[in-house]
Amino acid sequence: MHKQSSLNHRRDEEVQTPADADPYSPKAVKPKSLPKPVHYLLKEQRWLFVLVGMLIASTLFILGPNLAKRDIRKTIGGSEKFVSKGVEKSGVQKTITVHRLVAGVRRQPLRIVVTGGAGFVGSHLVDRLLERGDHVIVIDNFFTGRKENVMHHFKNPRFELIRHDVVEPILLEVDQIYHLACPASPVHYKFNPVKTIKTNVMGTLNMLGLAKRIGARFLLTSTSEVYGDPLQHPQTETYWGNVNPIGVRSCYDEGKRTAETLTMDYHRGANVEVRIARIFNTYGPRMCIDDGRVVSNFVAQALRKEPLTVYGDGKQTRSFQYVSDLVEGLIRLMESNHVGPFNLGNPGEFTMLELAEVVKETIDSNAKIEFKENTADDPHKRKPDITKAKDLLKWEPKISLREGLPLMVEDFHKRIF
């Protein structure tokens, strides 16, 4: 027992640390190995594939915006054109540019308010905005607008309809405001002139206030009536007009002039993004049948086998644009960087007698013309100078009166009979 103990003691002494060794020295540090992700990439040259992938992604990021839009055209008779359904029926060919986005790059849809969106022009504008993928809120009090004009969108989740009078404020969150709300025909705006001017002034104030609060872009649809009975022919945007401020039409004429003033004051004083369009005579499907405007009057009278009513001597002139041309101009103006005002109309000029003859050719060659006393403050000449819109918006009307009138006649025939 004693021998075994001394043996173990000697064995312990043999394994003692040398006297000069520091018992507190740290252990030797092993060389650090690479992180597992790096080790994984370096193994079997996977890094080469990663670099190639980064190069491809960088190339797409740089070149993507230039490749994002591509014109798609449908070939018709050997020429590249895209024909809309309504125009195709009458044999009129209208070229429309369609944009297709590269996979993975999509246009962000906008939330857009259209006041008066159940009306004649407003409903066609709503069609176009929904067609391109935007979310549209229509505000209308249905004084002249009709639910039938927008009923085909009721099942569309991107469409909303609010019965509301713009004379009263409303709170919404949108990106753009198309302000069309106002009766536009003499029969309607003379029916309640005080309401008409309140719509032009209070309604425009409310919509401009909304645009200021939420930072939305605002487009005012003004009118060629701001030129009154013009002393300049054709009318350019720099012409200040010749308007009777106390006449029976002044609730509309001066109301729109005040709306333009408010729009520019909000632009200069509150930095609101605004656009101003001055619309000339427009016709097409969904017009009110008995609204007192000359095209709708003539078409309805001819279909009912009634005499065509011409006021005065019939030598006063107007210019008529088809509604799809106007909608294209409004959208181009809203998407542009130009404030305006811009004349949007067809420079083709017709006397009332010439228009009556075109209607007779289109509907009833046996129709008779009946002359009546002219209305007060009726302009003698009206023709837009659209040089500014051509140069800055690259816009001009495509559909002539003889091409577009049959499309309107088809719609009126269904509604009258």
TrEMBL record:
Needed cofactors: NAD(+)
GO BP: D-xylose metabolic process; UDP-D-xylose biosynthetic process
One Pfam family, short name: GDP_Man_Dehyd
Domain of life: Eukaryota
Entry function: Catalyzes the NAD-dependent decarboxylation of UDP-glucuronic acid to UDP-xylose. Necessary for the biosynthesis of the core tetrasaccharide in glycosaminoglycan biosynthesis.
Annotated protein name in UniProt: UDP-glucuronate decarboxylase
Family as reported in the entry's similarity comment: Belongs to the NAD(P)-dependent epimerase/dehydratase family. UDP-glucuronic acid decarboxylase subfamily.
Annotated spans, Disordered: 1-30
Transmembrane segments: 47-68
Gene3D superfamilies: NAD(P)-binding Rossmann-like Domain (3.40.50.720)
Membrane topology reported for the UniProt record: Single-pass type II membrane protein
UniProt KW keywords: Decarboxylase, Golgi apparatus, Lyase, Membrane, NAD, Signal-anchor, Transmembrane, Transmembrane helix
MF-aspect GO terms: NAD+ binding; UDP-glucuronate decarboxylase activity
Locations listed in the record: Golgi apparatus, Golgi stack membrane
Pathway(s) served: Nucleotide-sugar biosynthesis; UDP-alpha-D-xylose biosynthesis; UDP-alpha-D-xylose from UDP-alpha-D-glucuronate: step 1/1
GO cellular component: Golgi cisterna membrane
Domain (NAD(P)-binding) ranges: 114-406
Chief location of this protein within or outside the cell: Golgi
Species assigned in the record: Picea sitchensis (Sitka spruce)
EC number: 4.1.1.35
